[in-house]
Specification:
By secondary structure, the protein is α/β, with parallel strands linked by helices. The protein is built from nine helices and ten strands. The chain has two domains: 132 residues, 3-Layer(aba) Sandwich (Rossmann fold); 132 residues, HUPs (Rossmann fold, 3-Layer(aba) Sandwich), CATH 3.40.50.620.
């Protein structure tokens, strides 16, 4: 199918993908966008296939159709489309993701990146996706269900600014409070600037962080936003701040054609360690 895909969810029938399917359906409703279910089937070892390929394709189509019907029943009025293709899951997820406003993937409850087809490729997808990607752990509810807030990591980079805007949008859509978090490296110090002390540098960075948050807040004045600027390890601080969160939003750093395809160390640690869904926002221009 051609044209925009709205909210795109990878589906393979696993428990993690079932959670992602419900999460994506609710997100599509809130955003007033269609939901597209992408079911990818593949023949890993063609020489050992006993069933005809048409049988495998039919089974994939039936599984996708059943999932779509469940969503339509639970979310009447939501436009639900399907794509069923044979091929490489990471390649097709990234390729179709270019036409979606949001890509949603499931992950197993006891594994950092998940299990099954989606689990084996999630790390590749979030490292190569050109748009925002959400990783949802098995059993996790949509953002607005129950107490909690949305937490976003901010470090002044272009990607983190995009992450900040994405976090405010989510907070606005789901009518939830937001916490913007910035970590000050404990070993940060001034070098080559005799008229600026370490304390001055700390204050300058804190003020820049607060101004950056305020610049986005003006577009979403109804969002209750808190700012946290503290000394410590960024990944550990973000994970602690998001311990009771409904969604954690992070950007990815990109420097050059190769590094821009990789998750930064903080984002990678957060994706692995977070106990809530994680929205990963790629660097601008990827």
């Amino acid at each position: 199918m051609s044209g925009p895909l709205g909210v795109l969810v990878g589906y393979d029938g696993s428990k993690g993908s079932e959670t992602a399917l419900e999460w994506a359906a609710r997100e599509a409703e809130v955003r007033q966008l269609p939901l597209t279910i992408l079911h990818i089937w593949q023949v890993v070892y063609p020489g050992f296939v006993v069933l005809p390929l048409t049988a495998l394709e039919d089974a994939a189509d039936k599984a996708s159709a059943a999932a779509a019907e469940r969503v339509r029943t639970a979310h009447p009025g939501l436009q639900v489309d399907r794509i069923v293709e044979c091929g490489s899951p990471p390649y097709l997820l990234v390729a179709h993701g270019r036409r979606a406003e949001l890509l949603v993937l499931g992950r197993n409850a006891d594994h950092p990146f998940g299990a099954g087809i989606l689990g084996s490729v999630s790390a590749q997808v979030v490292g190569h996706a050109t748009g925002p990607t959400v990783l949802v752990r098995e059993g996790q509810a949509p953002p607005e269900a129950g107490p909690g807030d949305i937490v976003v990591g901010v470090d002044g980079s272009p990607s983190s600014r995009d992450a900040l805007r994405a976090a405010f949008l989510e907070a606005h859509l789901h009518e939830m409070p937001l916490t913007a978090y910035c970590a000050w490296p404990p070993d940060a110090q001034v070098s080559g600037t005799p008229f600026l002390t370490d304390a001055d540098l700390h204050d300058v960075c804190r003020e820049r962080f607060e101004r950056e948050v305020e610049s986005v807040y003006t577009a979403y004045p109804e969002v209750k936003a808190a700012k946290v600027f503290e000394s410590g390890n960024a990944a550990e601080g973000l994970l602690a701040a998001a311990s009771g969160a409904k969604l954690l939003v992070v950007g990815t750093r990109g420097r050059g054609p190769v590094r821009s395809l990789l998750l930064g160390s903080v984002s990678r640690a957060v994706v692995r360690g977070a106990r809530c869904p994680v929205l990963v926002v790629p660097p601008p221009g990827r």
